[in-house]
Every structure is written in C-alpha cells, then in structure tokens.
Amino acid sequence: MLDRRVEACRAKDIDQLMSVYSDDIVYFDVVPPLQFIGTDAVRRNFVRWFDEYDGPIGLETQDLSVAVNGDVAFAHMLHLDSGTRRNGLELAVWVHSTVCLRRLDDQWLITHEHISIPHDPNDWSAVVDAKP
Amino acid sequence: MLDRRVEACRAKDIDQLMSVYSDDIVYFDVVPPLQFIGTDAVRRNFVRWFDEYDGPIGLETQDLSVAVNGDVAFAHMLHLDSGTRRNGLELAVWVHSTVCLRRLDDQWLITHEHISIPHDPNDWSAVVDAKP
C-alpha cells in the first residue's frame, strides 16, 4: 500500500492516490492550513502539489520503519522529492513522512499523514539541503 | 502518558520527558538533522529547545485524536507553543504533532514523534501565524 501511494504520486494519478486515504483523513502538510481534513481538501492539495512540477515527480523512500498490530499501524520514512518545478528549477529535497493507518472493513486506509521539511533555527527558512 | 509528555515539556523536566520515549526513538523535529535517533540525540535536542525559553514553556493541545489496538497506537494533535524566548520575544506558534507508540514489556513508549511548522509556499519561510 505504501508502494501504491508513492507510485501514484510519481505518476500524478490522483484517483489512485486518493484510494489509500480514509474519508476522515487528517493531513498535516508542508504548507498551510494547519490541517487538511477530509478527502476533498486533501485531493485539492495534492493536485496543487502535482501542478508545481513540469512532468513526473521523483519520490524515493529511505529508512522506512513499519509497526502493525491488529487494526492499527504506523510507518515513518524519509522521501527524496525531486523534479523540475514550473519555473524550470530542478530541486531534490528530503522530507519527513509519517503515515498512520487503520483497518476498516478489512481494508487498510491512511487516516493521518504528516509531511514536513525542517527549518533553519536561525532565520526560520526551509532547510532544503539536509541529507539523511 | 500524553499528559505527562506535555507536563514535562512545560516544566522543562528532561528526565520526566525522556521517560516516555523508547531507546530506539526516531524523532523528526522542526530543526535539522533530518532524524534524531536514540535517547541521547533526542535528549540533547530537547535541552536545546528548553534553553530557547526564558522561563517555562506554554504548551496547549487541540484536536487530539488517538487510535490504539493491541500493542500499537498513534495520536495526532496541534500544540500551541508559547513563551518568552531568550531574546525577549514573546511568541505563540501552532505546531503539528504526531506521536507513534508501542507497548513493550507492558509499558507504552513513544517510538516515533514528528513535530513541524508549515512553510509559506511562496518564499519557504516558516508560517508562525497559522491558526487551526
């Protein structure tokens, strides 16, 4: 399922991507607002993100850790998010990724996701050159 | 346990705070490096954070959601982090907080925590005035 999630991001396949989220998803993203609640808000935010790229999105996963018990699970990992932005800039940025899942009617769905980029504590700018 | 975590932060009680984390904690914080792994690294980072404040840390919790099943659990919430910084600046900032837990030898411990502040997508500065 985490593979499907990353594949859908790379391909910018919004329907495939949304199929891994629960209706009551609470999403903490790199950009405001503080919470994207529900699939409509999350879908719009993914489409906004897809539109930042001219072409496909590169997404690699590193340091994946998964814990599952019964109907609750979580996973954390780092993603290297790369690609050509609409302004022509080529960027590759490591992001924090935490995914929390529940099994509902025998189907695992993401009920909470948290994506972030660290800040420089001196000037509070985004740290886009941190490496794992 | 989440209450103990917040109380320990407010009081800057590092030993009490560290008692809620597992030895193999993987911590994604607002500042680099990308991962703080293990209690030594996490402890040093908390002490650094405590030292930013002149006096106690204000920490309120809102929109808490918890999922538990068997020996795995996760929780997500917003924290309003406030207080007087060493430079005299009074700041109150909403932060994303995700906490992932496992029960090990009948004791619940945090094995992963992820704290972040959103960025302005235009200039990538930290958004310190977002409100839930």
Question: How would you describe this structure to a colleague?
Answer:
2 copies of one chain form a homodimer. The first copy, chain A, has 132 residues and is of the alpha+beta class. The first copy, chain A, has one domain: Nuclear Transport Factor 2, Chain: A. Helices cover 20% and strands 45% of the residues of chain A. Chain A has a 6-stranded mixed β-sheet, with helices on one face. The longest helix of chain A has 12 residues, at 39-50. The radius of gyration of chain A is 15 Å and the shape is globular. The mean pLDDT of chain A is 95. The interface between A and B is large, with 43 and 43 residues.
Quick gist of this model?
Chain A is an alpha+beta fold and 132 residues long. The first copy, chain A, is built from 3 helices and 6 strands, in the order ααββαββββ. Chain A has one domain: Nuclear Transport Factor 2, Chain: A (Roll).
Question: How do the strands and helices of this protein lay out in sequence?
Answer:
2 copies of one chain form a homodimer.
Chain A: H1 2-10, H2 14-18, E1 21-28, E2 36-37, H3 39-50, E3 58-69, E4 72-84, E5 90-104, E6 107-116
Parallel strand pairs in A: 1-6
Antiparallel strand pairs in A: 1-2, 3-4, 4-5, 5-6
